[in-house]
């Protein structure tokens, strides 16, 4: 009887792991020395196909727009290939946009893994840099999800999600600045069904204003289960 229960248990675990969606790993590449460029990478193994991929994103922090040539997307259509190989190819292509050696990670002012269950996935309150006693005011970011009708190609999704991202002033009740307010869903997000704040990266260049990047995990309909991919919103602190 015990052997049968164990077989059922491990059989169930095997099915659930085999049918899992893929969650892209996040790598912060950093800011250019003048703070005008922010770059990050996501990589992993695609669910369903088993193909490794690596995507790099280079963003103009003043306009929150991609630089020419970005995003860099690499997928190796070979199950025996490795993510390291995909990442190396993406890095080679990305070097034409910005050299990794010239990027500075800055400071991770707030962070939550997508597996974190105890923290608020939609709000960060943080100090912009590790100076104590603090010389900076607190900052806050809040993400609010917006409902959109389900698209015909998004099987299994009753509704899709966009978002509004707000930069709050903790010292002034109700004061906020809208960073993003989705009026429609870009095709690049696939079929998004949820969002959560992943990290806030800040950078203080020697000359010029301090800048930030908010990393957001996008949960979307995948082939074998929900997938997670990353987007970023940038601006001045």
Automatic annotation (TrEMBL):
<dbReference type="InterPro" id="IPR018725">
    <property type="entry name" value="DUF2259_secreted"/>
</dbReference>
<protein>
    <submittedName>
        <fullName>DUF2259 domain-containing protein</fullName>
    </submittedName>
</protein>
<keyword id="KW-0732">Signal</keyword>
<feature type="signal peptide">
    <location>
        <begin position="1"/>
        <end position="20"/>
    </location>
</feature>
<dbReference type="Pfam" id="PF10016">
    <property type="entry name" value="DUF2259"/>
</dbReference>
């Amino acid at each position: 009887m015990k052997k049968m229960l164990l077989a059922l248990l491990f059989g169930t675990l095997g099915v659930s792991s085999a049918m899992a969606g893929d969650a892209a790993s996040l790598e912060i590449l950093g800011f250019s020395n003048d703070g005008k460029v922010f770059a990050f990478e996501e990589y992993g193994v695609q669910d369903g196909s088993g193909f490794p991929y690596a995507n790099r994103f280079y963003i103009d922090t003043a306009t929150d727009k991609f630089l020419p040539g970005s995003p860099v997307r690499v997928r190796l259509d070979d199950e025996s290939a490795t993510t390291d190989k995909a990442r190396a190819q993406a890095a080679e292509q990305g070097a034409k946009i910005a050299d990794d050696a010239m990027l500075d990670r800055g400071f991770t002012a707030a962070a939550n893994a997508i597996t974190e269950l105890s923290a608020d996935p939609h709000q960060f309150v943080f100090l912009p840099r590790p100076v104590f006693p603090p010389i900076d005011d607190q900052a806050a970011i809040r993400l609010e999800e917006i409902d959109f009708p389900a698209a015909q190609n998004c099987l299994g999704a009753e509704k899709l999600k966009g978002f509004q991202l707000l930069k709050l002033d903790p010292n002034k009740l109700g004061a906020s600045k809208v960073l993003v307010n989705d009026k429609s869903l870009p095709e690049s997000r696939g079929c998004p069904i949820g969002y959560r704040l992943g990290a806030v990266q800040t950078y203080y260049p020697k000359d010029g204003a301090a800048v930030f990047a908010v990393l957001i995990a996008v949960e979307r309909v995948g082939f074998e289960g929900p997938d997670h991919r990353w987007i970023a919103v940038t601006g001045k602190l």
